[in-house]
């Protein structure tokens, strides 16, 4: 093995997208678990998902939906579990973190990592054919007051935070929270690039990636993802520059590859890494790289709960 750290691959499973373009996009807990296992078998070490209505796919934040997924993943894999926060439309911080805290006292079921988006942005989609935005008033709101409240909860309960940043200003904001002692010094920086229909995020360019990297504190790890766009180009840069990669149908349908499931998408990134001379991290290696504690083995208590 070369001297580079093994590549951490995160699977971003279902976000708020629907399955019109790809039926492999999961809604129900059983479907989400299926995709988690596929991703894990292909080389993913982190798994991120959103709670969805099993039939309609409508966003839902029921604790039971998350608990079923966590149990299934723990039973079948050693993935790093990384659910979303509750949806931003839930104004109360307690509502956004309820599903994470519900399992926090269980050493096996507890969530490994929780994401925090470090700023607000306009989320109106662009229609390149009509040369118009489809809406003109959609805003993803993350006030600093809300960020402070969420980070205080995570600090109190010793929950590892991934720092999701849609531009360099959000990275600077996150570093301010590090100076406040609310964002841990050890965090995984997730750089969000966006495709053509979502111009509010960072464009997929090498200078854009380099601007993100310049803000990463020494010793911290970073990865790239592309929301509503193809991550492959920026993934190749991240692999060669020592970063990590997230991919999934929650971000983009990848119809140029047909109708791939998550195992196939993760395998493409793993093969790219091997071609570029970099090994792929196991979940245990990823925990070590991210300076996270090792996971305890699945217990008889969990087996009894699942069965």
Task: Characterize this entry briefly.
Its cofactor is Zn(2+). The chain is built from 10 helices and 12 strands.
Features:
307 residues, alpha/beta, TIM Barrel, 8-stranded parallel β-sheet, two-stranded antiparallel sheet, 10 helices, 12 strands, 16% strand, globular
Your description of this structure?
This protein has 307 residues and is of the alpha/beta class. The chain has one domain: Alpha-Beta Barrel (TIM Barrel). The protein is 36% helix and 16% strand. It contains 10 helices and 12 strands. The chain has helices spanning 29-42, 63-76, 93-101, 144-156, 168-180, 206-214, 232-241, 262-275, 283-289, 300-306; strands at residues 9-12, 46-49, 80-83, 113-117, 121-122, 126-127, 132-133, 139-140, 160-165, 188-194, 221-227, 244-247. Helix 1 links the parallel strand 1 (9-12) and strand 2. The longest helix is centred in the N-terminal third of the chain and has 14 residues, at 29-42.
Strand/helix succession: EHEHEHEEEEEHEHEHEHEHHH
Q: Give the number of helices.
A: 10
Q: Roughly how many Å is the radius of gyration?
A: 18 Å
Shape: globular
Portion of residues within helices: 25-40%
Beta content comes to 15-25%
| Low-confidence parts | none
Biggest sheet: strands, sense, closure? 8 strands, parallel
Q: Spatial order of the strands in the main sheet?
A: 3-2-1-12-11-10-9-4
